[in-house]
Fold this sequence. Notes:
about 750 residues, 4-stranded mixed sheet
Amino acid sequence: xxxxxxxxxxxxxxxxxxxxxxxxxxxxxxxxxxxxxxxxxxxxxxxxxxxxxxxxxxxxxxxxxxxxxxxxxxxxxxxxxxxxxxxxxxxxxxxxxxxxxxxxxxxxxxxxxxxxxxxxxxxxxxxxxxxxxxxxxxxxxxxxxxxxxxxxxxxxxxxxxxxxxxxxxxxxxxxxxxxxxxxxxxxxxxxxxxxxxxxxxxxxxxxxxxxxxxxxxxxxxxxxxxxxxxxxxxxxxxxxxxxxxxxxxxxxxxxxxxxxxxxxxxxxxxxxxxxxxxxxxxxxxxxxxxxxxxxxxxxxxxxxxxxxxxxxxxxxxxxxxxxxxxxxxxxxxxxxxxxxxxxxxxxxxxxxxxxxxxxxxxxxxxxxxxxxxxxxxxxxxxxxxxxxxxxxxxxxxxxxxxxxxxxxxxxxxxxxxxxxxxxxxxxxxxxxxxxxxxxxxxxxxxxxxxxxxxxxxxxxxxxxxxxxxxxxxxxxxxxxxxxxxxxxxxxxxxxxxxxxxxxxxxxxxxxxxxxxxxxxxxxxxxxxxxxxxxxxxxxxxxxxxxxxxxxxxxxxxxxxxxxxxxxxxxxxxxxxxxxxxxxxxxxxxxxxxxxxxxxxxxxxxxxxxxxxxxxxxxxxxxxxxxxxxxxxxxxxxxxxxxxxxxxxxxxxxxxxxxxxxxxxxxxxxxxxxxxxxxxxxxxxxxxxxxxxxxxxxxxxxxxxxxxxxxxxxxxxxxxxxxxxxxxxxxxxxxxxxxxxx
Length: 741
């Protein structure tokens, strides 16, 4: 089972302990790995056939064997019991039906198995779960319909838009004011709040109250000093309605902020217009904002215009969704708004009406360099943006059902009617394949795993902390058992017995050049009883300087790890005392308690630890491995290969390597840089030839590469294997070389 990593296997074992009904997965994976292959490769694991437990089948077979033996021994007894068998036949059939129902996995159990074996598919599976058990309407992104919301407002009730990144309700209000039912385009007053805009806005509101106009105050979170006046104005609307025109409306917009008056929130109608997630939701939002006049606004080349309109809308959805891939999508995240798409559609419509032929170069420049490209500051991002735009602003898009993705799911519809196009958008999948964005299938896995962790964390955070009486353990018992278990296996401090005289005890410094004291570092300076290995590691020259810079790095690493070990141990001991009531449960201890309960690394630990994204269990295991690496270095001498990720401060190790080379050849360290050589290894990753111990540079292991994988047969980088996000690199020699002048 090469497709199951050690981490996944540990999760399978934990699942069997936590959920006894799913313990069969462990044995089933071992005995029938082929049956699970389809599940592991499926694009929709929730709807895939998950292997079921076969224990009941085995029991029924054993029972049938016993019955057949009984028949051979006593035929007369069986004949006399024929009537009884006939009578109980119906009951047995009912029992079989009940057993088959018990063997069928519940949907929530499917989600648990998917979380363990296919973590990246949890969010799509949750969508399928909600669609099946609650209803499709709970997963559809409903476009904002201001005409419906308007009915809930009055001259006394303001409408408050809670802003989010990438959303702008301005155009929604402007379009609504221009609609045939309202016709308020000349009576809508918009002002963006900021320094000095408060009095102007107040005068505008006073006039509008008498005239029955509409006032839209944007970005209230930027006018902190004026929020008290806004609260007074809204309060007067409800307390003194006399003299106010019933047609008056007050619209407000603000980012989530603690300076916004609570009383205004209570009086008003709250609306949030978050940016849609997914290509389908983005397209649905874009076409919800396109009215029939805009869609039918081209008098000549109407069919070509509609295809290009769909193309630019699809382009807008693609560049927004590429943000979820992080640096793979864009080097910098840009806040494109709906106004950019509306301006692009307006330019497209004007050009199609003004020219008999399509002005491709002008469309590409105005859209890619000015409208959307005007927000792009990175040269590589601008190049990528223009490259993507050429896929949708091209002659080929005018052909019949031009494909927008390799799998053929996304294409430019031929339908001329706006409602028909919207129906086509409704048929699109909720989740999209990375090939739509021109990316490898693995690009989506990293994003999906992060989404899964975010959803799981949200679910855990909203769980109630109070546990009703029952047979299960309380939260306090769970945390106490976990803390005691960690303390029982907690490694001891790293102690280095350094041969030194009293005058040389201050020769160990950290990376900032500050002296490391014996009390804080747990280093022991001894004149006798020092092992030969310590004498070799910390051999000094005539000036009392340690010859091997990596030994100094080792001592600095021990200081950092000892601080972390002491912090965690003290924290766990105090937490146990606090749970028992011996000491006060401080805010820091309560934070540690909640983190241990949620399998998270407490902030008090991570603040003095190395950078890590692992959950608590993996973090503790990784820490034990790091301590063992350092301990082996102390006890058995400098290793042949160095586990670079195991260092607290890898930069110090690399600097020490350069310093050793500079001292060996008496050259300035600032003239050196690293060259890299792949070292031949066996199948198990061990060195084929350990080489000369005096050879320059160091051998480094434990590095991973994201994107491709290293092919040992061809010695070149190849595309990643499916579902492999990070590929382990072979041992690499870091070789200091002089910089070419």
